[in-house]
Amino acid sequence: MERTTQAKEQLNEDFKRLLFDAQNLLKATSEDLDDKTREARARLEESINEAKTHYSSVSDMFKEHTDTAERLLQEKPFHAVGASFLIGIILGWLFGRK
Fold first, then answer.
1. pTM of the predicted model over 0.70
2. In terms of DSSP H, where are the helices of the chain?
3. First and final CA of the chain: distance in angstroms?
4. Coil, strand or helix: which one is 98?
5. pLDDT, tens digit, for every residue of 19-32?
6. Cα–Cα dist 71/75, whole Å
7. What is the distance between the alpha carbons of residues 81 and 89, in angstroms, rounded to a whole number?
8. Lowest CB count within 10 Å: 6, 12, 15, 25, which one?
9. What's the rounded Cα separation, in Å, for the pair 68 and 70?
10. Contacts of 23 (CB under 8 A, 6+ apart)
């Protein structure tokens, strides 16, 4: 569980760094007067804003699901173990067929 949390945090930091770098690139090219550059900057700005919005909603949804899963595991640990065991048996049976 700790490894998953660390991976999630690393992905979160990488995404934030990517957005930050893209915004810095936009600022650095703000004085370029070429029409193609303006169009590309506009598309990049739009993509960054969409990515931020989408990331925010996905992040919130992911947090809700992980909180729900954690709560269920704490409330009913035997159900989780039983379900995992059953899934393991089914997957073993499916992969073991020739």
1. no
2. 2-28, 35-75, 77-96
3. 34
4. coil
5. 788 877 777 766 75
6. 6
7. 12
8. 6
9. 5
10. 48
